[in-house]
Amino acid sequence: MTVRPRNVLRFDPQRLPVERVDGHLPAVGPQAMTIEALRQRFRQPPRWSPEALVERRFVDRPPADASVLVPLVVAHSELVGAAQRPLSVLFTQRTEHLSDHPGQVAFPGGRAEATDADAVHTALREAEEEIGLPSDAVEVLGCLPLYVTGTGFHVTPVVGVIHSLPALRPDPREVADVFQVPLDFLMTPRHHRHHVVGEGEERRRFLSMPWPGVDAGDEVPAGTRYIWGATAGMLRNLYRFLAAPVTA
Q1: 27-66 tens-digit pLDDT
Q2: Angle between helices 35-43 and 229-243 (to 10 degrees)
Q3: Does an H or E element contain 178, and which?
Q4: In angstroms, what CA-CA distances link 49 with 77, 111, 115, 223?
Q5: Which of 67, 172, 192, 213 could disulfide-link to 156, CB 3.0 to 4.6 Å?
Q6: For residue 1, is pLDDT > 70?
Q7: How many domains does the chain have?
Q8: What is the CATH number of the domain that holds 145?
């Protein structure tokens, strides 16, 4: 079996043209992104179909189980009650020397270990190891469907709410930075950009959701946090889950 050295991209995703954006799709409304609405949706999921589940493989190695935490952070505000405060999504920027997905924006998470009780345990353990987030600071809402990356990871996204974000302690060996993006920005499809790279059997499609620090429309200025690939794919599934109509 041949294993390619490191997970080195053969293209720069930020330089690829945008095939299309999804401005025709409705954004998730603020009433669907309150804490109680999210709790209810995970307790009684609607009928929905995930959009992105399996990427084209580009690394030859045995598959590995993994989990990530999709951390929804409650904003601190005295202007509205806690239940109505806006949410943001916490991301990590991976260090450049890592063998898998170096330098990319990611959710905290990693490989499952034999001692993990389940996928939720893996996500919480990895988040504590990577960024110093205590497990008891997270209210777990539920899981999104399994996502298979092009690097062979079978990833369970675990969605959780952080009501009060503690002081974090990122592991400098794995995490170059930690930052947040408003959930409503990510749940607005006009910010979802589709890209295509390669031809024939090498053809790959992926999404990007660049965060410039403000809603800059079509502009992607220098310093933008470039959310793409598996992370963007899992966010797209979260969008589909939250946007699905509730049926009686």
Answers
A1: 999 999 999 999 999 999 999 999 877 887 777 778 899 9
A2: 90
A3: strand 175-182
A4: 35, 26, 32, 34
A5: 67
A6: no
A7: 1
A8: 3.90.79.10
